[in-house]
Amino acid sequence: MTRPAWMPTPHNASRAPAAIAALASLAASIAILFGAAAARAEANPVLEPDLPAGAANGAPASRSAVLTPVSPGSISKTYDDSAFRVSSRLLDANGQPIAGARIDILQQVAETSRTQLVAQAISGADGSFSVLVPSGPSRMIDIAYRAFAGDPVYAAQTEVFESVAAGVQLRITPRRTRPTGRIVFEGRVLGTIPSHGVVAEVLVNYQGQWQPIRTPRTTGNGRFRLVYQFHQAYGQFPFKAGVREGQVGFPYRGGYSRAVEVTARP
Questions:
Q1: 88, 161 in Cβ contact below 8 A?
Q2: Which tens digit of pLDDT belongs to each residue from 56-66?
Q3: Where does the chain hold its CATH 2.60.40.10 domain(s)?
């Protein structure tokens, strides 16, 4: 569902070539060792530095443990409300609770392969636990238990997929103009934005239907600005900005801003 190699510096550069060669060989071995450890950590991070290698994680620790499935297995949230609480229960192969075990909560953001730890929980006497997952984009949340410190893989895992709607903001100035006046749209798509930006859209509600009138590309920080001129328009015009899902490097489903109304009068 990610983590640097050290290299020793010779204490005395004037040592014999054989000694220098030995040091170089040692440095290479250390680099390989740390590189391999980092690769394993990226794939399945071992985040129990306060437990000695081989120490049991919970009582009784079990490599045949089971985590009860999270229900529902997928949820939909808005950008402003993407944090959520996840609850489960850790049991051994005989259905008995595993108490005092550390549970890792990891996330894999949509359209990425990197997994990172975002929270941890400790199981109670009955094996149950509940933890708040911090806000984020659309992602797979993996709840994972490692039976013994240093184990290369998790003994039990369950997951929940969270789909998060994009957050979009829109500001229009002025809010009152002439039938042929100009207005300025300043918008922002919130959250994780790729460096090339995303394609947004500005819509107007005309005769009861939302219709796109412009499709600006945002900057790498999600902002866009454009000027629009009315052509003999009279009345009140609701506008909103939005962004569609499925864009490369954009881990959200589609979302829209609140409507902003502009009045065009002589």
A1: no
A2: 999 999 999 99
A3: 66-163, 168-264
The residue type found at 32 is I
CB-CB contact of 255 with 168 (8 Å): yes
Task: List pLDDT tens digits, range 41-59.
Answer: 333 444 445 667 789 999 9
Cα-to-chain-centroid distance, residue 48: 22
Which position has the higher pLDDT, 205 or 14? 205
198 C-beta neighbours (distance < 10 Å), count: 22
CB 136 within 8 A of CB 109: yes
197 CB-near residues (< 8 Å, 6+ apart): 217, 218, 219, 220, 222
Nearest-angstrom CA–CA distance, 142 and 156:
10
The domain defined by 168-264 folds into: Immunoglobulin-like (2.60.40)
Say how far apart CA 175 and CA 159 lie, in whole Å: 47
